[in-house]
Amino acid sequence: MTATLDLRTPANLRDVGGLTTADGRTIRTGILLRSDAPRPGDLSPAEPAAVVDLRSAAETRGDTHPLAEVAEIHEVPMGASLAPEVIAATPEEERDLGWAYRLLVRDAAEQIARIMHVLASAPAPVLVHCAAGKDRTGIVVATVLTLVGVPREQVLADYLRTNENLEHLLARLAAAGRHLPAVSKRLLGVDATALTAVLDEMESHPDGIRGHLVGHGADPADLDAIVARLT
């Protein structure tokens, strides 16, 4: 018998603390959280001091963020490259998660660099979220974990935990009258191959993922601060 889902609790909320770096350091808990979009009335143990909201204005519909009274809200929209008209212009057989991620990383490189400043300077805990907390959030969090030296297998394992939460996640989205973008309906979960491809691309820079971020506007001092803060 399937347990009743409590739609007042975020489906995809987790702290990335506890992961380890290749040189044996441990990621601190209570610094970086990731989740699907919070909703008014949520019952959640997470109490972020700052929030990075990756949703577009079309997704938020101008609503006040439900955590606005208790946390700093930093709106950094990602996903303009996946607007309905772009999706419609792309042949159906080309629309997979890898395609979506390549567009996101290409078109949102400056936004990702901007997020690095927030993560370096905003009060902790910092919650990063989009609508489902799987794709945009997954890319941002994977970028940060790679930057601080978490091995790829742990980065992918954290990312793939979303697949365990899909039933709850889809139920929450439906209850809120929100739905995953059409591009994601063919692959409702997350796919390690798609994330691996974009991380490989970022790390192909001569100076690795750090060089990629700096090349798109990130301040090296912010990247140093993130490493110090998380480890």
Quick take:
With 231 residues, the chain is of the alpha/beta class. It contains 10 helices and 5 strands.
Determine the mean pLDDT. Answer: 88
- Separation of termini? 42 Å
* Share in β-strands: 5-15%
What is the element string, with H for helices and E for strands? EEEHEHHHEHHHHHH
Helical proportion?
Answer: 40-55%
Stretches where pLDDT is under 50 for at least 5 consecutive residues are: none
Descriptive overview:
The protein is an alpha/beta fold. The protein has a single domain, classed as Protein tyrosine phosphatase superfamily (Protein-Tyrosine Phosphatase, Chain A, Alpha-Beta Complex). The protein is 42% helix and 8% strand. The chain has helices at 57-60, 84-88, 97-107, 109-121, 136-148, 152-160, 166-175, 192-203, 208-215, 220-230, and strands spanning 14-15, 32-35, 50-53, 72-75, 126-129. A five-stranded mixed sheet has the order 1-2-5-3-4, covered by helices on one side. Strand 3, helix 1 (57-60) and strand 4 (72-75) form a beta-alpha-beta unit. The longest helix has 13 residues, at 109-121. It starts with 13 loop residues before the first strand and ends with a helix. The model has no long low-confidence stretch (mean pLDDT 88).
